[in-house]
């Protein structure tokens, strides 16, 4: 079985850097970058033939769409391409038919950019945003459902929930939230930015209305590449954030939904086109393919969480079913320091003094802060040991 040290040769990461932050922007294997460059060379050799939707672009996108749909348990016709998950969230929110008095429910673990998008869409439509406060540390996934349920009322039109939360790295019980929402006639939008490549997906059975995710994170595809899945019931309603030619020029044999998202103006499709190579790469290392790859990363994350817990004297209460490849721990706050100051200065010191890259966030509870690490195949526990030693030194625990 390949180790983190064996895997590192497939990436171009600085060998002197302990890069424990794959969850932010990902990192692309060299072989995938080579495939992307080959597509770019083709594009520049004949830009019209390559980019014009009616010539070669649509068949190329459809091939990728089929590969992706198979991976995430969806029908091809329900999957559109977006720049990233934030783009997908904005497309849904800006298309949603809010009226005065409507409410959107989000959680305090939500991604800031997407919370901002919800606030923006709500203000334009006369709606308001309510926040479900989910505790962290957490002891039971039912606490997520209960917190959301507490915020629902007859005015709730939409729940926006992360699949894997960005600041706390928790795998939220999306199917249970969707079941609750369905019983109340409420739609569910999932920010699945970290989902594909970290956890198995079957969008046909998840029970949600919208799911958007990145390819550049745990699938290791080039950046500026993601997807938006929309239930067929709502596809006529959802429009891309950029309105272009397909708004009044239907494409033969294609739904308006796909036509509008496939062409939003001149763009570089090569990050999308390189996705099948990234999936092939990740699937090639273990007999169990991508599923085993994800499990190996999850096991590494669980071991890393144990090291952080024991090394820093932190009680871990996260249920195993809520752990993916991101793990977050609360850190003790030095006296006479506010959380904002701590998260900025500690992250900088880890990078500058120890050559360790990992994010430190203000906590979801007031006056607390969190440290998150992301475990991808090129990582190993030696890096986590070095992080623990650095944190003990910085926090005065030595």
From TrEMBL:
Molecular function GO labels: transaminase activity
Residue ranges constituting the Aminotransferase class V domain according to the UniProt record: 29-387
Regions crossing the membrane: none
Highest taxon in the source lineage: Bacteria
Pfam families: Aminotran_5
Record bears the keyword Ubl conjugation: no
Keywords: Aminotransferase, Pyridoxal phosphate, Transferase
PANTHER family: HERCYNYLCYSTEINE SULFOXIDE LYASE, L-CYSTEINE DESULFHYDRASE
Name of the protein this chain belongs to: Aminotransferase class V-fold PLP-dependent enzyme
The organism's taxonomic lineage, starting at the top: Bacteria, Pseudomonadati, Planctomycetota, Planctomycetia, Pirellulales
């Amino acid at each position: 079985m390949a180790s983190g040290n064996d895997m590192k040769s497939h990436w171009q990461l600085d060998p002197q850097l302990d890069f424990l932050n794959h969850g932010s922007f990902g990192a692309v294997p060299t072989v995938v970058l080579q495939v992307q460059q080959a597509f770019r060379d083709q594009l520049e050799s004949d830009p019209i033939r390559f980019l014009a939707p009616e010539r070669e672009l649509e068949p190329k996108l459809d091939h990728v769409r089929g590969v992706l749909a198979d991976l995430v348990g969806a029908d091809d016709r329900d999957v559109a391409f977006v720049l990233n998950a934030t783009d997908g969230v904005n497309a849904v929110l800006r298309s949603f038919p809010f009226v005065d008095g409507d409410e959107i429910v989000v959680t305090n673990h939500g991604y800031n950019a997407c919370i901002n998008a919800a606030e923006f869409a709500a203000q334009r439509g006369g709606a308001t945003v309510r926040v479900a406060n989910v505790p962290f540390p957490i002891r039971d996934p039912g606490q997520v459902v209960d917190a959301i349920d507490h915020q629902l009322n007859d005015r709730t039109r939409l729940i926006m929930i992360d699949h894997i939360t960005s600041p706390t790295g928790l795998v939220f019980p999306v199917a249970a939230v969707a079941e609750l929402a369905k019983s109340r006639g409420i739609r569910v939008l999932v920010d699945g930015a970290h989902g594909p490549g970290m956890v198995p997906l079957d969008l046909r059975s998840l029970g949600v209305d919208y799911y958007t995710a990145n390819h550049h994170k745990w699938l290791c595809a080039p950046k500026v590449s993601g997807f938006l899945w929309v239930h067929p019931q709502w596809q006529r309603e959802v429009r891309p954030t950029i309105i272009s030619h397909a708004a009044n020029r239907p494409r033969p044999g294609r739904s308006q939904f796909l036509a509008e998202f496939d062409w939003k103006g001149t763009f570089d499709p090569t990050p999308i086109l390189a996705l099948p190579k990234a999936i092939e790469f990740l699937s090639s290392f273990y007999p169990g393919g991508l599923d085993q790859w994800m499990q190996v990363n999850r096991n590494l994350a669980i071991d890393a969480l144990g090291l952080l817990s024991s090394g820093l004297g932190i009680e871990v209460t996260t249920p195993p079913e809520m752990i993916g490849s991101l793990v977050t721990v609360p850190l003790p706050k030095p006296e006479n320091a506010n959380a904002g100051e701590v998260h900025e200065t500690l992250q900088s010191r880890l990078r500058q003094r120890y050559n360790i890259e990992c994010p430190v966030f203000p906590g979801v509870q007031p006056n607390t802060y969190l440290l998150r690490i992301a475990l991808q195949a090129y990582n190993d526990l030696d890096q986590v040991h070095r992080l623990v030693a650095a944190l003990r030194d910085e926090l005065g625990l030595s």
